[in-house]
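BUG: 3D viewer hangs when loading the predicted structure for this chain

Environment: internal workstation, default settings.
Expected: structure renders.
Actual: progress bar stalls at 90%.

Input used:
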Amino acid sequence: MLAGTGSDVGKSIIATALCRIFLQDGYKPAPFKAQNMALNSYATPDGLEIGRAQAVQAEACKLPPHTDMNPLLLKPNSEHTTQVVLNGRPIGNRSAYDYFRREGREELRQEVNAAFDRLHCRYNPIVMEGAGSIAEINLRSSDLVNMPMARHADAAVVLVADIDRGGVFASCYGSIMLQEPEDRQRIKGIIINKFRGDYRLFDEGRRMVEQLCGVPVLGVVPMMKDIAIDAEDSVALERKWHTTVAGKVNIAVVLLRHISNFTDFDVLERDPRVNLYYAATPDDLTQADIIILPGTKATLDDLLELRRNGMAQAVLRAHAEHKTIVGICGGYQMLGRTVNDPDGVEGSIASLPGLGLLDMDTTMSAEKTTQQIEFSFGGSLCKGYEIHQGQSTASEAITISNGCIGTYIHGILDNKPVIDYLLRDKTQASNVDAVSLDDFRNQQYDLLAEHVRKYVDINRIYDIMRL
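Structure tokens produced before the viewer hung:
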């Protein structure tokens, strides 16, 4: 198990690296995270939903994603409520207070334990991932994903710490010392992640961590550059705030409060013709050539906020200036005439007018659509997936009308024919990236594995696992 001193320390990326390393070394690994909280999700081949991070890790293992890899997914609707997805299907919305109560936790614990047991029968080794910090002692009795899960799996635990945020000595020591004695014995190593500069400068610090914690440091991993792996949550977007660039097609993604599946834009962002950035204010949209309204977990709430903060009006002005407007999933719903929620699926807002750029209406429903799909675009076969609640009156998989493009298909911009169509009138440059998406991703997993092998003692990890 890769456990963390906190959130965003790099557990997911190290777990992904180990998945590919174990595969390269002739094993049959699989990822597992009992409980994930993220708005980035993915549809499995059988039409169920898991966290995007585990889908990425499955891809690194060259496996199709399965709900047993992430049996419990929490998708926040607001600051207070979360949609609970169990074994790939939503089972309702709960407040944080209700979710973390002891009552009913054992039923969820049995479900996630059973998912691990099924996975463990088919694959070896299992690369487990914890969530957040392992030292949240106030949540210990209700924890399903960290040390209780390690106990069930009888897993060796490697603690991942982020040196870039500071306080690495205190976070490592505190995370270990706050464990129960039995759990403390499970922690067999530490990986110091996100080091900047010459990692040899931390040699003395490494020895101090080992002396302080009584646990070996298995590696000091420098900050990863030029390796493109899908991010797990929107924390990564903080590094993608850019301005417009002359000579390129400037594409602004509207930064919604409940943005989901922002990995839709990763391929587009790597296109040499494109400068992609995230827009938080109306002024950020003025120089954009293309504006994208992305997916969201709370369409009505985000639509109301766009009207309040002036972004909706800025999008309409851009459309009047003949800029291309693209809506994906929740963003697609916003482009219609109305968004209706008569049953309160999303919350207390019953109905709002949309931006009126597409001739359609949307009604929210409790039933969730999750499926992988294939579609034809420009004579080419393309792939994507749908994860949404609500149905729209437009019948086409992709609606192109009045300078707007709208669709429920996530991953639509992973397809070269779609990107070329989107950029067709705005640049004469050819797309020099001739590598297929599958080949590109496999190259990135191999680069990630090479990077981690260089700085982490993989043989020692094998020794820990054998013991």
